[in-house]
Q: What sequence folds into this?
């Protein structure tokens, strides 16, 4: 491939930047080595590039930054309150303040603060803590009730009740000892028909434990069904 | 801000060859950027590219305004150019030669036409990629490459006319 002087000149920068492919590089070199016009041209441009790369950054005048700040922001006085207030209008500050205000509102509402009839005593830290604590416990209890009222929990409880032996029959197996005298306020264990009175919270806790232990079985059977 | 100040000042200085003009133009660039900040859109390129574009437009406007008043050899004022710290590592004779060549290259740059001059400054002095230069100059990439090539060749011819020969 023989290149002309015009082609060589047009691709001179590509040659110096090293982006010619092998065939182009070969054609370029072949022409430059045999052309009296292009040989000194390539050498001169290469030398010029070297001179350009050797140019170093110059230092700007030290007063330039100050001059730019004065020209753009104006002369700032230490006691310029309005300038300080204007900085509060920055979006970042406004967003931060809005999120802090929202957090305070949420905390005070959770602590039972009455916005219609506010009382200073309700803002005391101890009061806020006490109210928030009781609200958290009430929310927890509601959550537990909600979970236990779920259908799946109901079904699991039914399975457990089917699997467990009848508490009445268990009591039948225990040979009755000499009949005890029933004191007022005490339950009579000899009567198998009447269920034991248990604490509601204890019952819920027990069933949640059973649910946790049964859950791997349920998820396992669910996965089996899906894989079929 | 310091980084941008240094970069903008260097572009202005290399384009005008005059330190005082470069200082005034740099200030003008920042003032224009400050006033038109609302018009900047990140979809049009990075902030640095946008600032370079504003600088370039200002330089071209300044060139057209001062074309009639300009002397061909518009060069520096009497103030010496402060070299950056890396140059002190060279030998004194090397430093002297490079200093002389730098001055000659700067002088030759100011003799280039503005279109070729800005292309060479952005590519060979500011080390911008072709895509960035295309965004700054708002011309196709082919035109950018063509201007850079012609700028380098023209610069070499000017240096030859000034008596600067490759060793």
A:
């Amino acid at each position: 491939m023989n290149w002309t002087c015009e082609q060589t000149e047009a691709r001179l920068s590509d040659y110096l930047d090293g982006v010619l492919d092998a065939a182009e590089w070969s054609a370029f070199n072949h022409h430059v080595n045999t052309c009296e016009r292009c040989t000194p041209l390539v050498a001169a441009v290469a030398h010029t590039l070297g001179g350009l790369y050797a140019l170093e950054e110059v230092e700007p005048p030290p007063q330039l930054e100050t001059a730019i700040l004065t020209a753009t922001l104006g002369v700032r006085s230490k006691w310029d309150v309005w300038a300080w207030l204007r900085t509060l209008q920055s979006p970042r500050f406004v967003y931060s303040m809005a999120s802090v205000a929202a957090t305070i509102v949420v905390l005070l509402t959770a602590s039972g603060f009455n916005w219609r009839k506010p009382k200073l005593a309700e803002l005391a830290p101890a009061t806020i803590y006490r109210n928030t604590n009781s609200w958290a416990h009430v929310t927890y209890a509601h959550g537990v009730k909600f979970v236990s009222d779920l259908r799946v929990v109901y079904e699991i409880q039914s399975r457990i009740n089917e699997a467990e032996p009848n508490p009445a029959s268990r009591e039948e197996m225990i040979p009755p000892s000499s009949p005890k005298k029933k004191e007022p306020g005490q339950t009579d264990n000899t009567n198998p028909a009447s269920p034991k009175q248990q604490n509601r919270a204890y019952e819920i806790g027990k069933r949640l434990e059973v649910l946790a232990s049964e859950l791997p079985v349920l998820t396992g059977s669910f996965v089996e069904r899906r894989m079929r | 801000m310091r980084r941008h100040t240094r970069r903008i000042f260097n572009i202005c200085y290399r384009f005008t060859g005059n330190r005082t003009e470069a200082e005034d133009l740099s200030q003008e660039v920042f003032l224009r950027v400050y006033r038109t900040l609302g018009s900047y859109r990140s979809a049009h390129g990075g902030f640095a590219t946008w600032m370079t574009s504003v600088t370039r437009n200002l330089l071209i406007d300044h060139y057209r305004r001062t074309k009639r008043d300009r002397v061909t050899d518009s060069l520096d004022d009497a103030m010496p150019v402060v070299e950056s710290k890396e140059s002190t590592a060279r030998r004194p004779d090397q430093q002297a030669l490079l200093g002389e060549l730098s001055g000659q290259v700067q002088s030759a740059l100011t003799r280039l036409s503005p279109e070729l001059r800005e292309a060479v400054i952005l590519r060979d002095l500011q080390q911008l990629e072709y895509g960035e230069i295309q965004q700054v100059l708002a011309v196709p990439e082919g035109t950018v490459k063509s201007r850079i090539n012609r700028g380098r060749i023209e610069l070499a011819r000017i240096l030859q006319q000034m008596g600067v020969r490759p060793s």
Observations:
- DSSP finds seven helices and no strands in chain B.
- Confidence is low (pLDDT under 50) at residues 72-88 of chain B.
- The two ends of chain B are 40 Å apart (CA to CA).
- Chain B has two domains: 1-72, 92-167.
